[in-house]
Target: 2-hydroxyacid dehydrogenase
Amino acid sequence: MHSGRPPDPALMAPVSARAAVRYTDSAGLADALPGAQVLFVYDFQTRALPGAWPAADRLRWVHIAATGVDSVLFPELCASEVIVTNTRGVFDTAIAEYVLGQILDFAKDLTGSNRLQQQQVWKHRESERIAGSTALVVGTGAIGRAIAGLLRAAGMRVRAVGRRARNDDPDFGVVTTDLYAELPCADYVVAIAPLTDRTRHMFDARAFGAMKPHARFINVGRGELVVTDDLVGALRSGGIAGAALDVVDPEPLPSGHPLWTLPTARVTPHNSGDFIGWRAEMVSAFAANFDRWSAGRPLDNVVDKTLGYVPGRRRASE
Model:
């Protein structure tokens, strides 16, 4: 299922060699589902599956071309025996690089330097160091781990908040479950938690109020992790020093929204993971999983539908 731009047929060749492949958009999903055993949700933002679900008479596996699976998890699917997998692993490095880039932009004020250049103003300024500062990564999945590794390599101290506390995590060291105990200690807070009932709106006025006034907030998870009005309020009041948002709520961000013009906000259009060649890698990841499916082997990146994400290690046992 796609949104106007179907997967490259050449990349889908390993799948079409073994199965009849139907291409459809969201509007045609209900007509295309009868008889289908596998659904490749190439348009990761679609909300069409719940409405088309009654037509899924033989469906056994849904694969989404994204890490987050909130767009395809709904009660009927969760209660069924249909397996859900995601494209975990494709975007890890690119999103980690985006986070480091935004941290460097804040610390070195590269945006401000560019603005001064456009004005042809030569103005000496001092900048912050990121080495020795503390980053709190909220979300301990594969992308959060890639972020932690890159930030540590840049000399930052990294802590994490996750679903399970531990003191010997190989990537984070210390992982706690108490967000409010960690927020006052962080210079940068990075949101990469999956969107679930537990995490929706976890960053609200209370959370921003617990952060240092000089702290910056970076969201590369889901826009709905944040109460947007509370974030705007924190930026306007100086409760926090800045926010870099690759995801927002609502999305796309409407014209005239205050986040567009707040000087301490950085907004990008949900593309932190979209490196050159990402579409091909998404299709290749699905094709590799389809090989496993065809051979009767365990699938990679099976989502725990009660949790809303892939738990534990990236790959299923061989």
Notes: The chain has two domains: 13-90+276-294, 92-267. Confidence is low (pLDDT under 50) at residues 314-318.
